[in-house]
Here is the input.
Amino acid sequence: MDLNDTPELADYRARVRAWLEEHKHEAPASRGDDDASVAARRAWQRRLAEDRLAAVTWPAEYGGAGLGPLQQVVVNQEIGRAGVPGIFDIIGVGMLGPTLIAHGSEDQKQRFLGPMLTADEVWCQLFSEPAAGSDLAGVQTRARRQEDGSWRLSGQKVWTTNAQHAAFGLLLARTNPDVPKHKGLTMFVVPMDADGVAVRPLRQISGEAHFNEVFLDDVRLEPGSEVGPVDGGWGVGLTTLMFERVTIGLGGEGFGWRADRFAHALLDDEACTRDPETRHRFGAIATEFLALRFTGYRMLTSLQRGQIPGAEGALAKVTTIRAAIAAGDLICDVLGPAGLSDKRFGELVSDMPGLKSAGGTEEILRNMVGERVLGLPPEPRLDKGIPFSELRAKEREAVA
Amino acid sequence: MNFALSDEQEFLKEAARGTLARVKTVAAAREALDGAALPDLWPAAVEAGWPGLLVSDANGGAELSALEAMIVFEELGRVLASVPLLGHLPATFLLDRGGPAEVVAALAAGAERAAYVPARPPTDLGEGWTVEPRIGITRAPAPSFADGRVTGTVSWVPDAPGADHLAVVLDDGRAALVAAADATIEPATVYDVTRSLGHVELDGAPATPLDLGERDTASAWYIAQALIGAEAIGAIEVALEVSVAYAKERHTFGRAIGSYQAVKHELVEMLRGLDNARSLMYYAGWAAQDKPDEFALAASALRLAAGKALDHAARTQISVHGGIGATWEHDAPLYFRRAQLARRLLGGTAGAADRVAGELLTAARAEAA
Here is the structure.
């Protein structure tokens, strides 16, 4: 067991720390979503990218630092320590860029990766739909190829972070409904300013709108907009989801939910720190957060050894949400009604019911871990081998 | 950064599994419910070098760390092996630091056995060094030392019956060595027959003060917490393996029960508990060596997480197996008994939760000041 840096890593850390010390006055003060804050956050990402601190694990030829996950974690830790925001477009740089690097054409890489990295062009992920979340392969957004090789796109996407700021989206659409559903999907690059694209914010319990709905009405896509093979979009999407797990895994305590932070909140009423029930609840919650921190180090050790993070990481997400729900509940019991509107914790309470379903619902994650890690048999499925176009009829038949 | 077991630690784990595989310990645990004697595993433990695990090289021990002791305990927990190390190892930790060299050498070699007579360190709420009561939850002051003699009562002491020496933690946070022959030890094994327990009565027993301070006696408590947590991890692992295997082969309504989400999700919850506890075991092992200020927090978190997870795992193992899981035909009740007693010993999982809170609140108060 060794959590210390190797001499090389310590040296890297020292350089990152010195850089941040020198440049942190350039960092934006606000992490808000208003236009001025977003502009400042994009400028800060550009600054980080210029000195190769934005995409640490991307190959150098695309503007990354060409380093490993450990160096990425060091950068995340040092950014946290300096008290400055990280990059603005985590979804683009963390998940969509790596997908393009893995599956995109050389032209696409040359065209898109540079501006993505500097946040001159922000990206969004257009996968989920109102009727396709856990069962993502059921997307109904339809792309039809035209005679000139261009595409026509119609449908609706949802839960789209940053759609209002995005220049491009990576979109999963159905290109062939007459084959089983995983086999008729294709991944596309969609310009968000194209005719027929409409973005509408979705407000959540807290009143904030962290997500959008995106409507696509007969949007024209240039020939060559597809990423990876036509009808091979499912494999491309799996790559994105793998990078999503890595990004969340390496982000670790990036949400700022740490046992010690909640301890400070309890001190608001010193009497409650002597209350046995409060102490018991807090001890249990803090234990889950501690387990998460050290599970993160175990995952990192695997990554460092070149192992691809598996379904186990899904359990970390389940624990994170459960512990955060319990923590918000406890803090508000201690602070009383005022806690619900407290800037520090009110959002925690309000955001959790939705976050339970984000990045995979708890139920679907438990299925995945049960089947892939424990080797338990899947539930019987009605959609195996059935062409997508016949599924609706099949579903109705099953209900009748 | 390398947060995994080393090759040597993996080897120690394999070797421990091999040693324990020579005896059918789970079958013996079942027979012991009907009064049969448990097999004596001490010679095997001596051969494996476990009694001297925490003793320094100079005193004839292996000079390994708490993590290696936890690795052995995980293996003991898997097969419910009854080896009196929960009492012996924390005692040797104390005696190695401040006891007579000849006694320590005999303990390291396994020629003699010691039992740790525990006292819980003071909390942030101002309680002193306290011990388990025989009944109820009101803790009593630890034994006191005066004029070369120790007086006091400590209940539910692991591995006290059959010990040669007692390492007694005192009400002032120091410790003293008492010959077991000078104490009254009433066997108190209950419910989980693989766990040897005794009530220790010291009535002016001649004692040698140990040359050590509160930091060491506190560490002994947290080592015991960590060991009981590690032992639970092993038991969860087996409960999960057995339950998953059964959920794959048992069919209802034409399909394996493990395909139903209601069953699958509970099995995944067992895995989640196991995985979290294992991360905390590594944390405790790392803290013992590299971050001693966090050892109290880490060991208490491990104790709590593992104790709760074993409780859930033992119950789930029974429900996954249906009615048969609640009978003596199956091993599940043995693991259930292990879970129920273990979580109530040495301050209990509730005490560990309180300690986690206390450690973090203390740190927060210091930062706020």
Summary: The CA atoms of residues 22 and 51 of chain B lie 19 Å apart. Chain B touches chain A through 57 residues (CB under 8 Å).
